[in-house]
Amino acid sequence: MKYDFAIIGSGIIGLTLAFKLKQKFNNSKIVIFEKEPNSISHGSGRNSGVLHSGIYYEPGSLRANLCVTGVKELKEYIKSENLWINECGKLLLPTSEYSYSNLENLFNRAKKNGVEINKIKNEEIKRIEPNTNCQFEYGLHVPFTSVADPKEVSKSLIENLKKMHVEINYNSKILKISEQKLFTQNNTIEAGHIFNCAGLFADEIAKNSNLEFRYSFLPFKGKYWKITNKSFKLNHLVYPIPDLRYPFLGLHSSHNRHGDFYIGPSSTPVFGREQYNGILGDNLKESISLIFNFSKKIIFNENKLRTLALEELSLLTKRGFFNQIKKMFDNINPDDLELSDQKVGIRSQIFDPQSKNLVNDFVVINQKNTTHVLNAISPAWSASFAFADHLMNEAAL
Ligand SMILES: Cc1cc2nc3c(=O)[nH]c(=O)nc-3n(C[C@H](O)[C@H](O)[C@H](O)COP(=O)(O)OP(=O)(O)OC[C@H]3O[C@@H](n4cnc5c(N)ncnc54)[C@H](O)[C@@H]3O)c2cc1C
């Protein structure tokens, strides 16, 4: 069977890419291969659903450029399809002296990225968001940030792709790619151009396809706590001012269309790619290698990973977690928190052994007639429509 374009993975990156390809090449034959029975089993169905404005990312980086443009397109898409969205805006609160010292940096970064941001006094924060606890004189306010339902967005894209005659093959795991061919357990499929958008497995597929790169995989689990006290409500998304050296945004609030509030996600090292419950993965060899890799980085404190691991350790108990979040929230008790076993995601994070840092940007690598998407970390969901354009440019289409 011969296709013009084959995409591995039907997460948000695969779906928006198929959508954009079909818009540009109306007569093309496009197929998506997805190993799961649906498109929302991993990152794109397990995230906070926040439409990030683009304030955090290094000006000029892929994350900054694609997020700022892509999120506007995502918002337009959501509105044009009448999907749920809450344009609530976002408050960023300092949680320590160090965090407060980053306020000005973040403010300037947002301005450089062309995103509207305002400094806001703590009395004003308390007035507009009574359940917060800003301990410093100023916080930040970003009006654009919104929250939507990621599962609903994927469902809508799938319906549109079906109407556009894009084929989505579920329960179809791609084992490797070689010279414009994709291999499943029983089939070989040919395609003019192949896009590897396999999220947590993208680096493995790239390696199995003889792509040489220096990165190693280092997954971090994000767990959320549900707020069970129904009288606790927030009008905005509430985030800390984060440590900009890490790709993580810190524990923040998120809410859904049903009015459920959560706080998370954590950034806990995990020793398996899809290990949502428990610590070790199905592939014991890989789990052992991840344990070794994490331990080495923690011992040598590479990219301050020991500091991060110690902070994360303190969040494992309800008391430790509560002590951290009370730096931002008021009128909440430890009894109001319940660890969610449903809402948990894993970041497809890679590590650069050369700079000894967690890679803090998206990575796209072109091989002959194949494009690999590595490190599709946050805000890839927000950026996805522009990410698709970028992939097409990289593939010279
Ligand atoms: C806890 C958490 C919270 C987040 N919050 C936000 C947020 O609020 N806003 C935001 O913008 N971003 C957020 N993100 C990031 C965002 O979710 C991801 O960047 C995005 O979903 C990545 O999409 P993807 O298509 O690359 O990956 P996925 O959604 O993981 O899709 C990849 C797909 O490839 C399939 N696949 C893998 N291997 C194969 C194979 N061999 N053959 C066939 N199919 C295969 C998988 O089954 C999967 O369905 C968050 C991430 C996490 C973990």
Summed up:
This protein starts with a strand and ends with a helix. Helix 1 crosses helix 11 and helix 2 crosses helix 11. The chain has helices spanning 12-24, 62-80, 97-101, 103-112, 122-128, 150-163, 202-208, 284-299, 305-314, 318-325, 380-394, and strands spanning 2-8, 30-33, 50-51, 85-86, 90-93, 118-121, 138-142, 146-148, 167-169, 176-178, 181-183, 188-196, 216-217, 220-227, 237-240, 252-255, 261-264, 268-269, 337-347, 350-352, 357-358, 363-367, 370-374.
In terms of structural class, how would the helical and strand content be classed?
A: alpha+beta
Q: Can you tell me the overall shape?
A: globular
What is the makeup of the main sheet? 8 strands, mixed
Quote the distance from N terminus to C terminus: 22 Å
CATH C-level of one domain? Alpha Beta
CATH fold type of one domain:
FAD/NAD(P)-binding domain
Ligands in the model, by name, code or SMILES, are: flavin-adenine dinucleotide
Give the strand content.
15-25%
CATH architecture of one domain: 3-Layer(bba) Sandwich
Count of alpha/pi helices:
11
Sequence stretches where pLDDT stays below 50 over 5 or more residues:
none
Q: Give the integer mean of the pLDDT values.
A: 94
Number of strands: 23
Q: Whole-number radius of gyration?
A: 21 Å
Q: What's the CATH H-level superfamily name of one domain?
A: FAD/NAD(P)-binding domain
Helix content: 25-40%
